[in-house]
């Protein structure tokens, strides 16, 4: 498992690029690191899982939702976006999205397109660059 983490303070995003299989332990460890660093908590997370597989069971999704709900305390309102390529991964993370709706006031959304996820995160910050140009 490889998780590459980058922070873009100007864009207000911390990006996780994942390859191979994302396990509950890997996910939890990356989140614990972010939750322990206030400068990371202030940034909206974008998980790029297009080159990965989500290797978690429904029971583990409940455990991750509990973990996030107990610890995700950013200093301001932030959104979290997860981007996937596979239908099964979309479904599993959609379950996480729904579970988090009862555990946190922060918005979480699953995407298939990185650019759409980035726009949605920017809209959550009130970033004028997020506006979609008239077409």
Describe this entry's structure for a reader.
The protein is built from 5 helices and 5 strands, in the order ββααβαβαβα. α1 (24-35) runs parallel beside α3 (58-71) and α3 crosses α4. The longest helix is centred in the middle third of the chain and has 14 residues, at 58-71. The radius of gyration is 14 Å and the shape is globular. β1 and β2 form a beta hairpin. The chain is an alpha/beta fold and 135 residues long. The protein has one domain: STAS domain (Transcription Regulator spoIIAA, 2-Layer Sandwich). The mean pLDDT is 90.
> What is the count of DSSP helices, taking H or I runs of 4+ residues?
5
**CATH H-level superfamily:** STAS domain
Compute the CA-based radius of gyration: 14 Å
Mean pLDDT over the residues: 90
CATH domain class: Alpha Beta
Largest sheet: 5 strands, mixed
Can you give me a brief rundown of this structure?
The chain is of the alpha/beta class and 135 residues long. The protein is 41% helix and 28% strand.
Topology:
Elements: E1 2-8, E2 13-22, H1 24-35, H2 38-41, E3 44-54, H3 58-71, E4 79-83, H4 87-100, E5 107-111, H5 114-124
Helix pairs in contact: 1-3, 3-4
Summarize this structure as a short list of keywords or feature phrases.
single chain, 135 residues, alpha/beta, Transcription Regulator spoIIAA, 5 helices
């Amino acid at each position: 498992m490889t998780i590459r983490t980058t922070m873009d303070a100007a864009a207000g995003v911390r990006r996780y690029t994942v390859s191979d299989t994302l396990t509950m332990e890997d996910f939890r460890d990356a989140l614990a690191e972010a939750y322990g660093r206030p400068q990371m908590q202030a940034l909206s997370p974008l998980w790029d899982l297009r080159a990965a597989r989500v290797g978690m069971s429904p029971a583990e999704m409940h455990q991750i939702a509990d973990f996030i709900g107990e610890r995700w305390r950013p200093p301001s309102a932030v959104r979290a976006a997860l981007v996937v390529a596979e239908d099964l991964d979309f479904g599993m993370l959609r379950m996480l999205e729904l579970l988090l709706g009862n555990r946190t006031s922060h918005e979480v959304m699953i995407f298939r397109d990185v650019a759409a996820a980035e726009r949605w995160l920017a809209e959550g910050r009130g970033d004028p660059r997020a506006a979609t140009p008239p077409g």
